[in-house]
Amino acid sequence: MKYMLIFASAVTLAVASPHRGLVDPGAAGPAPAPEPIAIGPAILDYEPIAIGPVPVEQPIVPAPAPVLPEEIAPPVAPAPAPVGSPLVQIILNINSPVSGPGIVVPQPPIEVAPADPVQVVDSAPEPVQIGPAIVPEPVAIGVPILPPPAVVIPEELN
Q1: For the whole model, what pTM was predicted?
Q2: Alpha carbons 9 and 13: distance in angstroms, whole number
């Protein structure tokens, strides 16, 4: 049954095309029948696009909008909570059996390695002698070649 369904869907996909016929397979497989493709700018047969402000047929007279008084309701305070019930309730089951990992097992203390003894020295060590400083010679760059400055064009050429 499933093979018949697969075959029927393959035939349906092969037949589903705008020209109501089977498509001849090409070098890359089945291809739709060629249709002329328009190349170039789109030609609009509509009215030209208007650029600029919109013409208004009737003059618009600005008038202030009527301001009507609003009735403001007094703020409603929430109902007070009953005195006997707190907002947060904490339940402690002290006498109940432990159901999870609540037992603490003592661990042996971590041993710290002893530090090396400090050596006390009466005199400071001799400083290291550094040779004379080597200063590189400055490099002569020469005269740089700059591009020509911009020329201002007269207003008539703009």
Answers
A1: 0.14
A2: 6
